[in-house]
Amino acid sequence: MNAQLQATGSAYFIPSEKELPEPRTLSVLVDNEPGVLARVIGLFSGRGYNIESLTVSETEHQKHLSRITVVTRGTPHIIEQIKNQLERIVPVHEVVDLTLRAVELGHDKPIARELALVKVAGEGDQRVEALRLADAFRAKVIDANTGHFIFEITGAVSKIEQFIAIMGPLGLVEVCRTGVAAMNRGAQGMGPGKF
Fold this sequence. Notes:
five-stranded antiparallel sheet; 6 helices; 31% helix; elongated
C-alpha cells in the first residue's frame, strides 16, 4: 500500500483545501445581448458561489460589448473554477481576475470605486454634524430640505462603508449603492484590440 493510501485510508486522494477564501474582483467582457447577464449570474447561483457586488454596463457601443464586474469570495482553486466556467459561456470574450493581475503587475489590488446615495434626516446639531462629516468625506449634497439631506459619495468600498457607519447615529434613513467598478493600473486593457 502506498503512503497516500495509508495516510488517507482511501484509494482516492483528494487534497484538502488549506487556503482561506479571499475577496476577488473579476472583470468579464461579454457580448451585449439579451440573456448574457442571466447566464453569468446563473453560473454563480447554480454552483453556490456568492456575489458580493455586481455591476454591468455597455462599454463599447460599436462593438456591442459590455463589461461585468463581479466581486466574489473564494480560494484560488474556486476562483480558477469560476473563471474557467465563465470562459465556456459562448458570448464571453475575456475573463480577468483583476485581483490576481494587480499582484502580477506589482500592485496590491485593482483600482476599485463605488458610488452611493445616502439619505440622512436630522435637525439642529445632528444636521450640522452630518454636513461637517460629509465635507470631510468629500460627499456632495445633491438634495436637501429642512428635514433631510441626500449625499452622493464616491470612493473605495471601505470609504463608503465608513461613511454609512458614521451617518447611522446621525439619522441614516436609506442607502443606495452602485456596486464596484474596477480596473488595473497600467497601459494594458481588456478585450478585442485591448481598447
